[in-house]
Every structure is written in structure tokens, then in C-alpha cells.
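Hi Prof. W.,

I finally got the F-box domain-containing protein prediction working! I wasn't sure whether to trim anything, so I left the full sequence exactly as given:
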Amino acid sequence: MHFENQPHIPPATPGGSTASFTSLDIPHRVKKNRGNYNCGRCGLPKKGHVCHLPPTSTTTTTPTQTPTDSSVSVSNSTSRPPPRQQYSNLRRALSFDDSDLRCDSPEVEIDESEMDLFGSGCGKLPVSCMWEILRRLPPAGLLAAGSVCKGWRETSRRLWRAAEELRLRVPPRSQPGFVGSVLQKCPGLSRLNLRLESDLDSTMFACIAFSCPNLEVVEISTSETAVNRITGDELGRFVADKRCLTSLKMEGCSNLGGFVLCSSSLSTLWLSDLYCLSKMVFNCPNLKEISLDFSRQENDSTDLIAMVDGLGRSCPRLQNVHVASVRLSHAAVLALTAANLRGLRMLSLVLGTEITDASVVAISQSYSKLELLDLSGSSISDSGIGMICNVFPGTLSRLLLALCPNITSSGIQFATAQLPLLELMDCGMTICDLSSQYPTSDESGDFELQTTFKNKLHLIYQKVIIKHSRLKKLSLWGCSGLDALYLNCPELIDLNLNSCKNLHPERVLLQCPSLESVHASGCHNLLIEGIQSQVSNNFAAMENQFPNKRLADGSKRVRVPQFLSQQVG
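And this is what came out:
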């Protein structure tokens, strides 16, 4: 069987060079001089072989050929894959991610006696060289290398035993034993990252728990075709048994049903795709960060008020809280403020249409030291922004208010003027062109809808003027009602104008000398050309990204509902 990344010897290479690797694990054994079992002309095995090449052929190799020639022929063989990219800071991990070529193991101590060349002859290498070669193989190649010979097998075992972090991609229709067999090779594993393209069931979950008793960090992500079948009871047992577990992140948690998590070591918990939870009990006194992302289905029966109330009583050290649910309400905000989490620094309550300015008042009265506030998808208005600016001028550095239809350009400008520490602001889908969202009365015959459209005409075609000395990232994606933009931000490096289709090129002025990236998917070509001409000296990248994707900003990502992404497109 041939492995793509396994170093091999082409047929024309003389025999004897493979024996050079078998002696890696026996450095003190006396070398045995054996005869050549391969043909000296063509390199094929002699048994039952009649060579068709004449004795004067250029491929003839005598047994007395130096080992240097054989080694060079292997390293320069055209059948080997191209050399991998070198990285200056190699991380301590074994990566099973096909898109990531960095699959390196940590440095380990090697006995000085193994540093010597093992004997003399063809293709002898020290253990240190073999280690450096095998540690650059992808994990599939490392598994294959372990079956080549005894020396390679021992070196690969050392690599697996020294691994502290493992990134494993589980292909579709893989057997549960595949995950267990790989994890058992890494007894010192402390960080595990699984990318599942097959279903996650109790058997595979038990393999993870049994094979890695000292896990500290676990991340499990699922593909669109994979199903996470783990129940709440199984998750609770896993967390309780892992006494060293500090971080747990899991996607596709739609089958939990309910759970009770008890852990004195857990400090970070991310669960996504939650749905219809009958109970949520958190007994994690050292929990500092929690992210609960619920499904977007309207029939979700989870009691968020009871969940938030219990979370505040049992997790007093919480610093970062993220909850994304369409069932978020003002009552849930009041329950969170009643918890009196004194260390709270980052608060993200996303997609709660019932969150209003009154909720902002409750938040500002209970938590006055917030550094990040994300109320995307809420119903707050410019008045709520005013209260935010009055309470958090000395602490708030990141403000995210995407998908808030009651916010106007005046509120955006007021926030940037009153928050001097602001470094990131997301106002996507706030200033929208209603004419592209509502049909006319002739087309629909709905007079009430047309009246609503006329009452909101004042929101169309607004301008934004921002002057800020510390702002680094500004996102105005989907602001189709924006027709003029004036920025004077010397520290701005990233600007998102995706789907700002009514923005006029002659009404755009960017005085941003540090600008590196502008996102302008769905904009007119004239606008793109105008931006390029203004920042031609400092322009680094003009990327096209989907309007429903939020940039990496340190906060949790918010997936735009499908009906909104269709309007943006």
C-alpha cells in the first residue's frame, strides 16, 4: 500500500538504504554485513528475477557504493512531495487539519548516545535528524511512517507521546475505533480539537473520555452533515469526570434536552445550537466565560429567565457572558442584572427583539465597568445609545449594535463622539433603504404597509461623519440607506462597507492613513474605484466578504438570520 506523504525509495534506487533506518532503535548493536538481495542493475529483488539490462547499463550500482549517494537519491527523488512551508514559531501540536500544514510536535530530550551516527554504511541518520524529519509529516503520514520499520516506529511513538495538543478531523463514515486508536497514542494530551464530519455519539464520546484522562481544553465542531447526538446526561458525566478540564467548546448541541454541569475547574464554556432545554444547572464556581447560542426556531421552549437567574447565583466569577436567542426579553435582562456579577466585563445579548431602552437602563445601573457591549438584533434606539455613552465613557472599547433598526446616523455619530476609548463599532444593517425592502402599493395592494414606508422616509439617505483618534475597526455592512460617509480616524485599519449600495463615490472622504482593509462586496464599481484612489498609498487589501459575516473582533460571532441575509443580498 502506498501512502502519499510516506518517504519511499524509487525502484531504481539500490537496496540497502532501507536498512539504514531499521538500526535507529539499536545504536549499540554490531552491524551485520549481509549480501545484496536486490539486482545490482535494475534494483528489483533477485529472487525469481532475470534482469533484462546489460552489465554496462548506467543504472548499475555495485554493493560498494557509498551511502551518501543513496541518501541523496532519496532526498532528491522527484516522487517525493514538495518541501513543506517553514514556520518560525512552530506550535506544540499535531494537526489533523488538511488545510494546515503545520503539524509539529514539542521538543523532547534525546539521550546523548542517540545523537551519534548509528554505525556506518548506507543512509545512517542520528535520531535528532529523524525526529526533525518525521515531526514535519502530516499525522496521516506519521501513522504510515510508523509501519515502515522498527526505527521509524519508535521515533513516531515518541512523537505521539510528546504531543500536548491534537487537532483531529474525523472523516465521514469513520469507525469509533479510529478516534480511540489515535488518542491512545497521546497519553500526555491536554488540548483536543475535533472537527467532525461524521456523527458524534455516546461511543465516540466515551472513547475521548477514556483515552484522554488529563484533558484541559476540548473543542468539538461539526460540519453541516454531521449530527451531535450527545445528551445532557452524557455531557454532565464527561464534565464531572474531567477534573482538569478548564475549557469546553461544543457545537451542534440540539439533542441535550437538559443538563447539570458540576466542575470546580471549568472556566470557559461555549455551547451552540441549543434547543428546548428543560433544565440548565451550572455548578461551576470558577466559570469566567460562558457562551450559549440557541437555535433560531420560534418554538424553542427554553426558559431563559430561570437559566439566567441560576447562572448568576452559581457562577459568581463570570466576566464574559454571551447569549444569542430570539427569546431574549427585558425580563431576562432584569434577571441578569439582579445576579450582581461584580466582575462582569463583557456582555453580549444578541437577537433579543424585546430588549429595549429600558433594558439598557437596567444594564447601566448594575454593570458600570463594561468593556464590551453587544446588543445586536435588539430594539434599542438613539436614546439607549445616549445612556450607554453617559455610563461607560471611561471603560467601553467595543460596541456592537448590528441589526438594530431603530438606530439612526445621529446615534452612531453621538457614540463615536462620546466614547473616547472606542476601538471597534459594528452598526451593520441599522441605516437601511426601506424602498428595497417593501414593495409599492401597486405591487402588493397593502395600503398599511405603504403608509409605514412613507412614515420612515426620513431614515433613508443619511450621512455619517466620524472623527475618532482610537477607532480601529468600523463596520457599516448592509447600511443601504447611507449615501455619504466622512471618516477622520488615524488609527482605523479595517472598514466594512459590504452592501452599502447607495453610497455615492463623490460623498465618501476617508482620512485614514492606517487603513489596511476595506470590505466592499455588493457596492458599485465606481465606489470601489473611488476608495482605492483615496487610499492608494496605504491600501493593502480590498476583500469581498459576505455581508452576513461579522469580522473577527474578539466578541462572539453572530449569524444573521436567513431572512435578513436574503434582504442584504
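The chain has 17 helices and 21 strands. Does that look reasonable to you?

Thanks,
D.
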